[in-house]
Amino acid sequence: MDLVIRHVEPGEYDTLGEITARAYLHDGLLDFGESDEYLGELKDVAKRAAAAEVLVAVQNGRVVGGVTFVPSGGPMADIAGPGEAEIRMLAVSREARGRGAGEALVRACIDRARSTEGCVRIVLSTQRTMHGAHRIYERLGFVRTPDRDWNPIPHLDDITLLTYELTL
Question: What is the CATH number of the domain that holds 72?
Answer without folding.
Answer: 3.40.630.30
